[in-house]
């Protein structure tokens, strides 16, 4: 192994339980910081700029969520490709992925920024954004679109580092950008000291400044540390996109991004049904979902960590270790998610009271629906861990199909069918049903599906029949051979 390769943080060695926990905790911390940042920004806007401004941010953030949801899948595809390449000790292939990813993300982000900037008024009208909110939303969203290149490239670098086995560096720079954003927000909104008074545009500008500075600081740090994945002057040729890698980023990344779209559109359907029961029920549901956001964080962090860790072990052909990573991930999900859920049951009234008045009817409704639905996020966590493992090989369509079936074909029809009998409870019970259905389907696919034969990159060597040789080698307890693309010909 080269000296550069020897310096990489390997997820193919050491105790699985400790390695996975130490890798997942910074990812969880990054997720918490992002949510905290959004909450603080909303607090400043809602309390000091009014309801119309807060409504503007809510509408703008829906657009931003869709944009980041799509790029999430593409970034995750990059994470898996790099993880597999490094697991196979193919540093050259990892750098090809980085080079293609840099060119792709920069190109896409610039196009999105230009199109979004000029299309902002049209998008807001298409969402039926209230007229008084549009006056705030247009300047806010246009600055956010200017920030999109920094956001996309920053996200790409963080996911690249995770694929390389480093989740701590992304966490530190996420903390840096969040603190900067939180500090700059009131300074630019109100024009404190030398800062201009920008109103709601100041909130977006603080995000733009924080993301851009953090991005350049991260790039500077990677080059100063001589990170093994940095592109040197002699390796700039890798910036020319590799057609096979580019194809994988798009066709494997988009289905993973569509999973986020399925989740968000299902949430829109459910809140539409909740709205039929009046503002008190909607307020109760809104308060409960605030808690659910935090309950889901451990599962999503473990799922992301498992995916990166499994990808390196898939690349190394260590299939027994992949199986143990799955088991440890499921156990951690039950421990971390279960602990949060237990705390919510113990302090249900107090936790929901953070969002609702203590004497409100909505608080009682929120306690009731929470007691029915919150425990089901244990199932959700198992699903995300299993999805994280199977997508580490390149199996991305089955998880998308499973999510679609559980969130569109189980949850809403069940709620509608039993509504005459159970009333609003039919909606609350649809959450455990959908989560249970997705978990059972994910377990079935993990056990009997063909995810071990999936590929991120299809190479001529694989097409020539190397799969059989890999299967024999893995069954014999050897390390599976790798292809020219740094992807193992895995056993099933």
From TrEMBL:
Keyword Cell membrane: yes
Biased composition (Polar residues): 476-485
Residue ranges, annotated region (Disordered): 472-492
Xref: InterPro entries: MATE_fam (IPR002528), MdtK-like (IPR048279), Membrane_Transporter-Flippase (IPR052031)
Pfam family, one: MatE
Nucleotide-binding among keywords: no
Entry keywords, A to Z: Cell membrane, Membrane, Transmembrane, Transmembrane helix, Transport
Cell compartments where the protein resides: Cell inner membrane
Membrane spanning stretches: 20-40, 60-85, 97-119, 139-159, 171-192, 198-223, 256-274, 294-319, 331-352, 372-390, 397-415, 427-446
Record's bilayer topology term: Multi-pass membrane protein
PANTHER family, alphabetized: MULTIDRUG RESISTANCE PROTEIN YPNP-RELATED (PTHR43549)
Protein name: MATE family efflux transporter
UniProt lineage: Bacteria, Pseudomonadati, Pseudomonadota, Gammaproteobacteria, Lysobacterales
């Amino acid at each position: 192994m080269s000296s550069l390769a020897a310096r990489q943080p390997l997820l193919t060695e050491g105790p699985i339980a400790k390695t996975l926990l130490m890798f997942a905790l910074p990812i969880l911390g990054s997720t918490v910081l992002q949510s905290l940042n959004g909450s603080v920004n909303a607090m400043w806007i809602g309390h000091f700029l009014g309801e119309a401004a807060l409504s503007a941010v809510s509408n703008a953030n829906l657009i931003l969520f869709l944009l980041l949801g799509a790029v999430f899948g593409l970034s995750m595809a990059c994470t898996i490709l790099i993880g597999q390449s490094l697991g196979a000790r193919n540093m050259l292939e990892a750098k090809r992925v980085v080079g293609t990813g840099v060119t792709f993300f920069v190109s896409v982000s610039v196009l999105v920024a230009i199109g979004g900037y000029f299309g902002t008024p049209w998008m807001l009208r298409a969402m039926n954004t209230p007229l008084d909110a549009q006056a705030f939303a247009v300047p806010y969203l246009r600055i956010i679109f200017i920030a999109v290149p920094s956001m996309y490239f920053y996200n790409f670098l963080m996911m690249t580092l995770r694929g390389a086995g480093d989740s701590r560096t992304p966490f530190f720079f996420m903390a840096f950008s969040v603190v900067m954003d939180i500090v700059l927000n009131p300074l630019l909104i109100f024009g404190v000291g030398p800062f201009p008074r920008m109103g709601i545009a100041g909130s977006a500008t603080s995000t733009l400044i924080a993301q851009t500075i953090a991005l350049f600081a991260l790039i500077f740090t990677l080059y100063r540390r001589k990170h093994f994945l940095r592109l040197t002057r002699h390796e700039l040729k890798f910036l020319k996109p590799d057609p096979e890698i580019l194809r994988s980023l798009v066709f494997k990344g988009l289905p993973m991004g569509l999973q986020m779209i399925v989740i968000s559109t299902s949430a829109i359907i459910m809140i539409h049904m909740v709205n039929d029961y009046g503002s008190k029920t909607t307020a109760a549901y809104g308060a409960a979902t605030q808690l659910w956001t935090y309950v889901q964080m451990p599962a999503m962090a473990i799922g992301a960590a498992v995916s990166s860790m499994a990808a390196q072990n898939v690349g190394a052909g260590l299939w027994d270790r992949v199986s143990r990573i799955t088991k440890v991930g499921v156990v951690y999900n039950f421990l971390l998610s279960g602990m949060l859920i237990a705390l919510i049951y113990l302090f249900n009234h107090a936790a929901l009271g953070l969002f609702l008045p203590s004497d409100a009817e909505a608080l009682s409704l929120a306690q009731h629906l929470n007691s029915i639905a919150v425990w089901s996020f244990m199932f959700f966590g198992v699903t995300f861990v299993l999805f994280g493992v199977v997508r580490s090989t390149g199996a991305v369509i089955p998880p998308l199909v499973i999510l679609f079936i559980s969130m569109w074909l189980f949850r809403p029809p069940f709620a509608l069918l039993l509504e005459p009998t159970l009333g609003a409870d039919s909606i609350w019970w649809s959450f455990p049903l959908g989560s249970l259905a997705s978990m059972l389907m994910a377990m079935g696919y993990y056990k009997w599906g063909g995810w071990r034969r999936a590929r991120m990159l299809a190479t001529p060597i694989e097409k020539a029949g190397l799969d059989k040789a890999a299967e024999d080698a893995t069954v014999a307890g050897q390390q599976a051979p790798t292809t020219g693309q740094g992807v193992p010909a895995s056993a099933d």
